[in-house]
Fold:
Amino acid sequence: MTAVSADALRAAQFLIRHMYRPVGFSDGEPYFAISETEQAIGGDQWFWNDDNAKALEFLSLPEVAQRFPTEIAEILRFVRGMCRGPFIFRRVSTPRLEAIPGEIEHRGLRLSGYIHSLMQLKFNLKLGGVIAGVRFHDERSVDNLILTGNRVEFIYRARRYRVPIEPHISDGAATQDGHRLLIRHSGELYFKPRRRPLRLGRFDYSYGFDARSSVITAEATLDLDAQIEVSDVVLTIGHAYLDYNGFAHIAAYPDRGEPLLSRSAAGTQVLPLAGASYYAIRQPDTSGDANAIHTIPEDGAPLAAIEATLLPNRKLGRALALYRFSGPQRGARLRAREYKLLTAGGFYDRLRDYSSFVREAVAGRESQTVAYDFSISYDYGVVLNAFAKCFATIRGSTGSTMPDLPDTLRQLFDQYLSFYFELYLDRHEQQPNTLFSRELAFVMLGLVTMYRATREEVYRHRLRRLCEVLLEFEVRFEDLDGGSASGFLMRLNSPRAAYVDCHSAALLALTRAAELVDDPRLPAAIDRGLASYCLETCRVEAGQSFKVDTIATSMVDAHGTRRTADAYWNFKVGITLRFFQALRQAHRPELRQIAARHRERMALLEMIMRDQLRRSTTEHEDGTEIRCSVHASETNSETQPWVMLGLLGHPCD
Structure:
C-alpha cells in the first residue's frame, strides 16, 4: 500500500499557488486570502475567515513559515480585517447574481429565483411574496426572510379601513441591471365605504438586491388619489411565516429591551417602536448558527410599531412593521423604506453594534467589490488558535522582519479570549446551546500553546475552566462489550450523536490539556471517548449515492438507540489523526497507558483513515492536493490544512 504524502511544503505550495488570491474590501486596498476552492463552486468564490485561520495554523509550521512569510502576513491581515470588536465575521464573496432557470418548488408553490453572492432569492410576483435566505453549499441553507402579508390602513370619514395588498396585485416584474436586481409588484387599491368601490390610490412594493452587498432594500409606496381625502394612513412591511425559522424574539434600538419574549401569551400584540432606529427579529439563542433579520428604517421614515403574532408554540408567526403617516392626506406619495441584513450567527443582544453594521453596509453597498457576510464565525476558536500558533512560531524564530508582530498577536489572542469568556462562557449556564464543542476545543488548544510559549499561569487557569465546561458535552453509555464509552456532543441541546470532528477535537483538546492540568477526569474521558470509534460501511449522499467503508463514532442515547456518524469527509479524518498522534506522543503516564491499551484498535482505525487519504490525494507538478473526499474532484480551504495537521501535528501544540 502506497503511503499518503506528508510533505508539508508541497501541500503548502498547492494552497498558495492554486487557492491564494486577491480579494478586495470597500476601502480599495487589496487583500489576499485562501479561497474556499481552486475552482468556483457552482459559480461561487467565497473566502471563509475561519478557514483562513485554519490555513494560518498549518502555514505557521516552522518549515513552511520560512518559505511563505509574505503570504502568511497577508492571510493574517485578511483574518484581522474580518474582526471587529468582539465580532469575528464569517466570509466574503465575489459578486454573483444569476437567474435560476425554470421554476422552484416551494411549499406547493411555483416560484422564480436568483442566486445572489451570499443568498438564494425566490419570488412569486402574482402572490406578492419575496423570500431571501443565507446560502451555503450544504444543508445549512435556509429561507430566513419571507416578505408578504401587507395591508394599508387609513381613516375615511371617521371610519378606519384595512385593505390587503396581495389580492390587488395586477402587475410586477423582476429586472436585473448588472449587479442590481429589483423585484416589484403593484396594483390599484379600492375600498367600499358604502356599496360601490372608491379608489384609494396605486401601491408599489419593491425589493432591491445588489451582488456586491448583503443589504436588502424593502420599500412600500402609495400614491393616493387626489379625489378623496383620508387620514392617519399606515403602510406595512410584512414578515411572514417566522415560525418556519424558529424566530421568537423582537428587539429594537435605542433600547426597547425584548418587547416580545417567548413567555408572552399567544396572540397578536402591537409593540410601540416610535423613535427606534433599528429592530431585529431573531431566534432565541445567541450562537454561531442562530438566525436573525436586522432592519433599519430609512432616516425620517415614520416607524410607529410592530404588529406581532405569537403562536401557541411560543414562536412568532408574523411581524408587520407599521409606518404611520398622521394627519389628512390627499394626492400625496407616501413611502416607507427599510434596509435589511440577514445573519446566521451573532451576538444579538449587542443592538447598537448591529445598527451600525447595517448602516455601514448600506453606505458601502455600491462601492464594495465583495459581498460581506456579517454572521459571526461558528469556529471562533480556530481564529484564537491561529493567533496563538503564529505568535509561538514567530516568537521562536530568528531574523523576523516584523519584530512587533509577536506582541500584536499576543494582544489579539488575549483580547478575543476575553471576548470568548464574556460572550460565550459567562452565558453558558443561562444559554446552554451557546457553545459549540469544536470551537471550544480550539480555544483550549490556543491556551495550551500560549501557556507553553509564555509560562504565564493565567492561561493555565483559564484552561482549567474550559476543561470543566467541555466535560459537560460528554455523553456516557455502555459499550458493546459492557464497558464504558462516551461521545462528545456538538452542542448541549443538539441531537444525541457524536459527530466525528466535534468528538475528535474534544479528545484532542483534553489530551493536550491533560499534560498541563492535573485532573483525573481528563484521562478517564479520553479513555471512554476512544471506545466510541468504530468501523462502518455506510451510504453517503454527495452528488450521488456512494457505498463507503470508513471509520465512525457511535453514541447510545438514554433510550438505548445507537447512532453513528461517519468520517467520509477528510477534514474529519484530519482532526482524528491529530488526536491519535497527540495521544501517542503524550508524556503523562496515564495518557501513555491509554494509548497502549487501545494500540491495536487505533492502528486499525488509522490504517483505514490513511488509506482513505491516499485515495483522496492528487499529486501535481507544483504541489500535493488532498481532496475533500475519495470521490471529490478537489480540496477546499478547510480540508487541506486540517489533513496536513493531522498527518504532521504542530510543534507548538
Q: What stands out?
A: The radius of gyration is 27 Å.
